[in-house]
Amino acid sequence: MADDRLSFARRCEDLAEAYLRRLGYRILVRNFHTRHGEIDIIARDGADLVFVEVKGKRGLGFGFPQEMVTRSKMDRLIKTALVYLDDAPRGGRSCRFDVVAVTAVGDSSPGIEHLKAAFGLGGG
Question: Torsions phi, psi of 48, nearest 5?
Fold first, then answer.
């Protein structure tokens, strides 16, 4: 069961990456880990540095995938992003946090919803 969840999560991240590439994002890093947590995708959107959280669900029985990005999850993402920023100079560029929600229902093509600037360094 855990392997199935991991496989589904990886597939959602792959779909999100392909989606972002189609929008012109330049992917810099996938699965950036620190002791605080993980950022699924770090990318450039023009001059912006974008930290992307990917959330996937197999249905909408208990809400939308993006609703799983809780306040504590935002705090962990922010702490992880700050570690990345300490090691990678931004050159005065702005940064933001996006959420890409992937919903797979049955055999249909997965739906993707992109929440640009879903939250900032201050959280929610």
Answer: -85, 140
Q: Structural domain tally of the chain?
A: 1
Give the model confidence (pLDDT) of 91-113 as tens digits: 557 899 999 999 986 667 888 99
And the tokens for 109?
A: 């093509």
CATH of residue 79's domain is 3.40.1350.10
Query: How many whole angstroms separate alpha carbon 17 and alpha carbon 40?
Result: 9
Spatial CB neighbours of 53, under 8 Å, sequence gap ≥ 6: 39, 40, 69, 73, 77, 97, 98, 99, 100, 118
- Does 74 reside within a domain? yes
The whole-model pTM stands at 0.88
CA distances (Å), 40 to each of 28, 43, 61, 73, 108, in order?
A: 11, 10, 24, 12, 24
Within-domain flag for 103? yes
